[in-house]
Amino acid sequence: MKVKEIGKYFMLAVISMAILYVWYPAVGVTDLGNWNHGLRNALAGVIFVFAAQLVTGRSLFHPSWRPGLVIFYLWLGAFSYIQAKSGGNWGIRVEALNNDVLTLMPVLVLTFLMEYIGSLCQKIRLLLRIFNFLLIGYLSLSVFVYMTYYKIFGAGFTSTDMISVLLTNSKEAMEFLQSHLGFGSLAVVLALFAVYMIFIGWLIVKGSRMDEIRGVTSPALIRKIIIAVLTMAALVTIAHWIPRIFPAWPYHVAHKYLIRAKAAMAKHDENMEKFHFIGNAPDKMQGTIIVVIGESANRNHMKAFNLAYPAETTPWLSSQKDNADFYLLKNTYSCYPLTEKSLSMALTNLNQYNGVDRNDMITITDVANKVGYNSYFISNQAPSPGNMTLALVSGSSKKSFTTTHPGGDDMKVMDYLKTVPTTESNFIVIHLEGSHDRYRDRIPPDFDRIHVDGNSEKVDDYDSSIKYTDEVLKNIYQYAKDNLNLEAMVYFGDHGEDMVRFHGDGIFTWDMIHSPCFVYLSSEYKNNHSAVANNLRVNENRIFTNDLVYDMVCGIFAAPNNEYDKEYDITSADYGLRKDMAVTKYGKIRIAEDTGLSD
C-alpha cells in the first residue's frame, strides 16, 4: 500500500472526527479541550476509523461506509443540538455526550465492517444486511422519537419523562399524540421515517455489493485477524455503551425508580393511616411556606456563616443576617455526607436519635397535606432510583415539576414557582443542583465570579457556585414575598463539601458535613406564632443536625403529631439536642469531636 494512500486514510479519519468539533461549538457544546471526554474520544475515533480503512483498503468515500456515517452524524448532530438547546444559554459540556460518542463510534466501524464482510461472503451477506438494518433502524427510530419530543416540548427527553411514559396507558398515549402532535403531523413523521429507512436499506444493499470495478479478493490472514479483532472490539463496546444511551438508560432509571417507589408507597399508605395530630387539628396559614434543599453547600465557604472567609460568597444572605426576620443556624451539621442518606432523614420523621424504622417513614409534605396546604415539589435534579424519600415527597405533592434540563441553571426553578397560585395556602419544596461537582457547570457564563488570590481554580469555581445559589435564593425569597404571601422559608444543605475529597462514604472530613441552614419568618407569622420565633432566636446558635428538619418544619406548621418530638424541634422551648448528644454519619461520629465547632 502506497504511503500516499495511507496518508489519505489518516486525513479522512481526522476529518470525520473534526466535523464534530466544528458542529459542537456551533450548537453550544463546550469544554471540547477536555482530555477524558473530548480529545481522547476524538483520538480513539480517528484510530478506529483509520485502522478500518487501512485493513480493508476502503476509504471513507466507499459506499460501504455510508450507512454508518448517516446514523453517526444524525445521532450525534441531533442529540448534541437538542441537549445543548435544552440547557439554555449555558449549553452543555462535551462530557454530557460521552456515552453517545462511545456508542456511535463503534457503530460506525461495525456497520462498515459488516458491509465489507458481506461484500466478500455471499452466503452471509443477507444476514449481515439485516443486522445492519436492524441496528441502524433501532438507533434511527430513537433519534426520530427524540427529535419529535423536542419539537413538541422544546427540551430533550429525560428519565423523568420516561417515568411519565411508563405510567401512561395506550388511551392516554393516543390522546397525548392527538393533542400535542395531531394525527396528521404524526403521519408525516412516520412517512418521513419510512422513507428514511428505505434510503438506509438502499445504502446497505449498495454498500455490501461486490466491488465490480476493482474486484474482490480475500484478504491475507493477518488482515482477517485484524478485521476480526476490530469487529469484536466494536461489538463489545456497543454492548457496553448502548444500554447507557437513549432510550435504554432513561428506561432503566425510570423502571427501577418506579419499582422502588411502588414498594415504598405501599408501605407509606399504611403509615399514613396511623398518622394523627396531637391535640386540635392545626390551622393552615393564609400564605406560603417554602423549604429549599441545597446541594454540596459548605457553610465554611459562605460569608454569612463565616465572617472570616476572604470572599463575599453570599451577598444577599449577608445583607439579611441583621434582619430580625432571619435566623442563621451557624452550628448546623449534615447527618450524612451523601444526598440520599441525608435527605432520607432531613425530610422525614427518621433521625439519628429516635430509632424510627425506615419503613415507618412520614415526610414533611405528608404533614403539609394533612394540615391542608396545596403542596408542590420543584426539582432541578433528575430522579435517582435510590432516593425514595424524594419519590415520596414528589409523589404526595399536588403537583411535581422537574426542570427541562435537570442539573442545569438553578434559576429555572423560578419558572415553576411562578405557576403556583398566588391566593392559596401553599407548601413548596424546591431541590436545587446547588454546588454539585463540576462546580463551574453550576454558574452562568456571564455571572460575576469569585476570585481569591492563592485559591485554586476549583475553589474559585466552588465559591462562585455558592454565590450563584445565593442569587437563586434571593430570587425565590423575593418572588414569594412579593407574590405568594411568604410566611416562612427554610433553606438547608443536604451535606457539605471538601475541596480535596468532595463528599461520600470513604474518608470523612468535617467539611463534608458543615452544611448551612437559615430560616425566614415573616412579621405576620411572628405576630401569630411569637413563641416559635422567640424559641428559634434563643436556640439559633445551638447545634442542629439536618435530620431534625422534619421536627422544625412541624414546629413552624404549629402541627405537633405522633411522629414529632419537641425535643428535636429547634423552634421549641424544649429543644434538647446537647453538644454531647449530637452525632453525624448515622451516629458513628460525635459532633463534639469537631475542633471547629463555634461557641
Automatic annotation (TrEMBL):
Keyword Nucleotide-binding: no
Gene3D superfamilies with a match to the protein in the record: Alkaline Phosphatase, subunit A
Principal location: membrane
UniProt GO molecular function: phosphotransferase activity, phosphate group as acceptor
Localization, UniProt: Cell membrane
InterPro entries in alphabetical order: Alkaline_phosphatase_core_sf, PEA_transf_C, PEA_transferase, Sulfatase_N
Domain of life: Bacteria
Pfam families in the record: Sulfatase (PF00884)
Cellular component per GO, a single term: plasma membrane
Keyword presence, Transmembrane: yes
Protein name, per record: Sulfatase N-terminal domain-containing protein
Annotated source species: Dialister succinatiphilus YIT 11850
